[in-house]
Write a structure and sequence with these properties.
The chain is of the alpha/beta class. The chain has twelve helices and eight strands. It has two domains: 99 residues; 123 residues, no CATH class.
């Protein structure tokens, strides 16, 4: 706590179910380095049993004892690895400071960056965070700190219009209700309704048009879509924490 205000890290139900060991390592890092409160999600009681059942042993019990969400109050700071949680909190709790995990990690002057020896990788920016320049800049600086040579894609920064297959499915009702500015007002014509075969073909066509198959992601939905399309996509968290 700082001046009576709390600092949280949202571990993310979806991210943790995809990368349980990696998520656990990040949680411990935030808890030990920054004395941050760890919670599961931005939304109380959100699909608790579904995600508890998805968590494998030996991490299952650790996930189940985490608070489902936080009592986010004015002036609190929340660090998020999930763009969905970020967007929802920004609209439902406008007096809470919401930042990306990447911005916080960048403040750690003793972080043990691995050395990827000049490996060339493209960075896939996400539509859900196309307007978050501080996050985008932090992602790129972290990549440079790991000695990665960045390849910029044409639709980068504010031009980002990719989020895996999620834009080829109907908008999730919860998102539209809790974050209408992002998912309704600024998303006209964004969401479609395609079959799984069609989504795979779209992802394959997208990947085939990229200048490289080696891609850094910082969105789990982008990651899943690029994997479906055949890219060698690696989440930034995995590059940083090596899990």
């Amino acid at each position: 706590m700082d001046n009576g205000k709390s600092t949280y890290y949202i571990a993310s139900c979806v991210f943790t179910s995809k990368y349980p060991a990696l998520s656990n390592k990040i949680q411990q890092y935030f808890k030990e380095k920054f004395h941050t409160r760890i919670v599961r999600c931005c939304t109380p009681k959100y699909k608790l049993k579904k995600y508890e059942d998805l968590m494998p042993e030996p991490y299952h019990d650790a996930w189940c004892v985490l608070p489902d969400s936080g009592h986010f109050e004015d002036g609190d700071t929340v660090y998020s690895i999930c763009h969905n949680c970020t967007d929802i909190l920004e609209e439902t709790k406008p007096m809470v400071k919401v930042k990306s995990v990447w911005e916080k990690i960048l403040t750690d002057e003793t972080f043990p960056y691995p050395d990827y020896q000049g490996k060339e990788m493209a960075i896939q920016d996400c539509w859900r965070s196309y307007d978050k320049r501080a996050e985008q800049d932090a992602v790129r600086q972290l990549a440079r700190n790991m000695n990665i040579k960045i390849i910029e894609l044409p639709n980068n920064y504010e031009k980002a219009d990719f989020c895996g297959t999620t834009l080829y499915s109907p908008c999730v009702k919860r998102n539209a209700v809790l974050a209408p500015h992002r998912f309704v007002e600024n998303a006209e014509g964004k969401f479609g309704n395609y079959s799984e075969d069609e989504k795979k073909k779209i992802m394959q066509e997208y990947v085939s048009g990229l200048p490289t198959r080696d891609i850094i992601t910082y969105c789990h939905y982008c990651q899943t879509g690029l994997e479906l399309g055949g890219a060698n996509a690696v989440h930034l968290a995995k590059l940083l924490f090596g899990v």
